[in-house]
Design goal:
Growth Hormone, Chain: A, 80% helix, globular
Length: 435
């Protein structure tokens, strides 16, 4: 981050605050990497649920339920945070909740399906709340023309955090397997490692990141959840004024659905279709995180030069190629190619989307608009994995067909990206922010 000049930051923002903000991405990426992608997902399907045909569908249904909860809570929570200058308070709550319920996953043993699903739902709800809140700080830190690179630094450092949590877990798993221990013995320990890493790294964020939002003026309507929902309804009722933001939300619903499939089902696909064993899967996801970090950092800079819309479009084409390769390959080597492309595209598409949302959000409603962005991504996280799980269940476990159909989500994202006009959308956001 040494080459991140103060000219890329808003007045009064120091580099250490940006580092503190990025450290939350570092902290929470261990959860997605270890729990949702590399370890617990495959453990749930293969051990907790005993490899039953309905296991993948049950996993995706649990994730979908958690995203449904977030969809109907985060926009109003964001509006409340804007009114009360409470983004950092929400971040505390989200962090503590995700850490506690991730640690609780350590108690799950084979056969405890309902307990596993309960803790996954709760941990993912708190994770998603935190992910939305931390994103809403981005426009306060970075100048509009440099938002892509700052967002890229956050995602890039985040994937490093994911690699740390996964690397520590992998080291323990290798040692445990050498001792003759089973997955039911070493997977719970990886959950504790992940929770501890999350908590330790998030403390850096809490110390360095400032609450910059000012409370609502005294002459405004009475604060509270009812007023927050009223503000949210008002925003949606004036959606035409933010039509570029709304098109971007539609684009996100499509392509983020495909990204959610990669996050939630990569390990399951690798083991159930390609024949990876758990240790190989963890190494695969580790390399995927390396590629994602490179993608986030490189595209973070390139999108500021190429344009956010073009950069996102390029990554969506890469995602389509990933799905096709994964569906057709029959070898581990071929799947490695697909995973590497997926990693590059994952980092860049996540970084681009977050920066574009920040460009199109009114400055005085950042948490609220990132709440709407979270609404869109949670819809995506329901549509993508749940459709994948339903296809595998209906076809007796045909994962190849399911991943092939996932490419249609990225193609839909490309189509919905076309109407987005960043200059027009930015003008609309600034006009609202000054009224």
């Amino acid at each position: 981050m040494s080459d991140l000049s103060t000219g890329a930051l808003n007045p009064g923002v120091k580099k250490r605050e940006v580092f503190g903000w990025a450290m939350f991405d570092f902290a929470n990426s261990g959860y997605t990497t270890v729990v949702l992608t590399a370890v617990f997902a495959a453990y749930f399907v293969g051990s907790v649920a005993g490899g039953q045909d309905w296991a993948t569908f049950a996993w995706t249904a649990a994730l979908s339920l958690s995203h449904l909860i977030v969809m109907f809570t985060m926009p109003a929570m964001g509006a409340w945070a804007d009114r009360h200058a409470g983004k950092k308070r929400l971040l505390w709550v989200a962090t503590l909740g995700c850490v506690l319920f991730t640690a609780a996953l350590a108690s799950v043993q084979p056969g405890a399906v309902l307990l596993a699903l309960l803790f996954v739902v709760l941990s993912n709800v708190f994770f998603s709340w935190g992910e939305s809140v931390i994103s809403s700080f981005l426009p306060e830190l970075a100048r509009p023309e440099h938002m892509g690179r700052v967002s890229g630094w956050g995602w890039g450092l985040g994937y490093v955090g994911g690699m740390l949590a996964l690397g520590l877990s992998l080291g323990y798993v290798i040692w445990a397997q050498a001792q003759g221990r089973s997955a039911s013995e070493f997977v719970p320990v990886t959950m504790l490692i992940t929770a501890a890493t999350f908590a330790a790294a998030a403390m850096v964020t809490m110390v360095l990141l400032k609450e910059r939002t000012l409370p609502q003026r005294a002459d405004t309507p009475a604060p509270g959840w009812r007023a927050s929902f009223a503000q949210l309804r008002d925003t949606l009722s004036r959606a035409r004024q933010y039509r570029d933001f709304m098109w971007l939300m539609g684009c996100a619903v499509a392509y983020q659905g495909g990204v959610a499939v990669a996050i939630a089902l990569a390990a399951i696909y690798a083991e159930q279709v390609i024949g990876f064993v758990q240790q190989e899967t963890m190494v695969l996801i580790f390399v995927l995180n390396v590629a994602a970090a490179v993608g986030a950092l490189a595209f973070g800079y390139w999108q500021d030069r190429l344009g956010h819309k073009l950069a996102l479009g390029i990554t969506l084409v890469g995602w389509v190629a990933t799905c096709i390769i994964a569906a057709l390959t029959t070898s581990k080597e071929g799947f490695w190619y697909a995973a590497t492309i997926a990693g590059l595209c994952m980092g860049s598409s996540q970084s681009s989307g977050r920066a574009m949302a920040g460009m199109l959000a009114p400055p005085r409603q950042l948490a609220e608009f990132y709440g709407l962005w979270t609404f869109a991504t949670r819809v995506a996280s329901i549509i993508g994995p749940l459709t994948y799980g339903a296809v595998t269940w209906a076809t007796g476990g045909n994962h190849r067909l399911a991943i092939g159909l996932t490419s249609l989500l990225f193609l839909a994202g490309l189509f919905l990206l076309l109407p987005v006009n960043m200059e027009r959308g930015r003008r609309a956001a600034l006009e609202t922010g000054t009224t």
